[in-house]
Design a protein that fits this description.
By secondary structure, the chain is an alpha/beta fold. It has 2 domains: about 140 residues, Alpha-Beta Complex (Aspartate Aminotransferase, domain 1), CATH 3.90.1150; about 240 residues, Type I PLP-dependent aspartate aminotransferase-like (Major domain) (Aspartate Aminotransferase, domain 2), CATH 3.40.640.10. It is about 45% helix and about 20% strand. It contains 15 helices and 15 strands. Strands 4-10-9-8-7-5-6 form a 7-stranded mixed β-sheet, with helices on both faces. Strands 1-2-3-13 form a 4-stranded mixed β-sheet, covered by helices on one side. Strands 11-12-15-14 form a 4-stranded antiparallel β-sheet. It is globular. The chain starts with a helix and ends with a helix. The model has no long low-confidence stretch (mean pLDDT about 95). Bound molecules: pyridoxal-5'-phosphate. Pyridoxal-5'-phosphate binds next to helix 5.
Amino acid sequence: MLLDHLNAKLEAIAAKSMTRVLRVAETGTAPHQQVRGVDGQSRELLMFCSNDYLGLAAHPAVAEAYIAGVRRYGTGSGASHLISGHSAAHDAIEKALAEFVSPEIPHARALYFCTGYMANLAVVTALGDAGADIFSEELNHASLIDGTRLAKAEVKRFAHRDVAGLRALLAASTARIKLIVTDAVFSMDGDIAPLDELLALAEAFDAWLIVDDAHGFGVLGPQGRGSLARFGLRSERLILVGTLGKAAAVAGAFVAAHPTVIEYLIQAARPYIFTTAAPPAVAHALLTSLALIRTEEGEARRAQLQRLQAQLRAGLDALTSEYPQLGWQLASSDTPVQPLIIGDNAATMRLAARLEREGLRVSGIRPPTVAPGTARLRITLCGSHTAADIDRLLQALRAAAQDFAAELAA
Ligand SMILES: *Cc1c(COP(=O)(O)O)cnc(C)c1O
């Protein structure tokens, strides 16, 4: 019966030490957060695992705009966008986002989605219909992969950052529609796709480039316009997915592209059509969050991120060269996602648990999320961390390295 079947599966997950556990946050997203642990005890943790990269989730102006949005529009949208759920706030944030990314995508139109997961599913399934070829990066986010599984198109995977491999696949394709699909910043590694080379291939082979910039939007490039802007790209062949629950600190996502692409998504994308529109207040709050991202406030927070990143990398660099016997490796990343590769699953989880006992929360990431033998601490930074916060993390890691090295020697 079902329950026996599920219990057996749960036991198999536990046997591999792969059980995931929910934690309960008792205060808002911020570097210092009150969290109820697995043992039921509540304690304050210094967090290095949220994607609130600019620290805007705790910004009073965004909160005020959220409240104002509720006062004006009420709590829910009441229906899907095409019925009666599309509010003036949704319309305004779509226009603001389109204008914001227009240096990269000429004449862009933008479409708001409830989540990034749905936006990715929508773009890949609606554009990847029968007769199309989808060229998909192997380290793409699960939502893009799920999109390719649902799409009627033929799917060809290319290896991580393998431009030559992609070129060969494109050259061999006879499909009328060709879609290259990639994350911009890879979420478990923090490295950036060679978007300039991918776009050059798209131009050369009459393909389109779909870029998921979940971790770059708000953080990278001039005004935080994201990874496309960081590379200085500009093309009508770009289809950008940006998420709005990470650096933008509220919720949802957008697709920005040529107006014809967007018009087609409105007509055909099922994750757009068959769901209730997000509360208008969410879109209203995003107007303020976007204004902060693109002006001095965002600039200052991005500058702070750069300082923290340099401080963390210098510290981890010193640590990994001091204890080469541990085999720890600092990933090459120029983004707020800074993985420390430990290698062994058990060692990674032991390290994460030890940090948590010391009041620091960093997520340990194991296969199959990452390749076997590359289990890691995924350290994420936030513009409202301080230099002292980074020091505390470095000191805790140093003490752990000392103990791990002593164990090895014993
Ligand atoms: C978080 C994330 C998504 C999903 O966005 P949500 O708004 O959280 O659903 C999509 N792609 C990448 C790369 C992500 O990191």
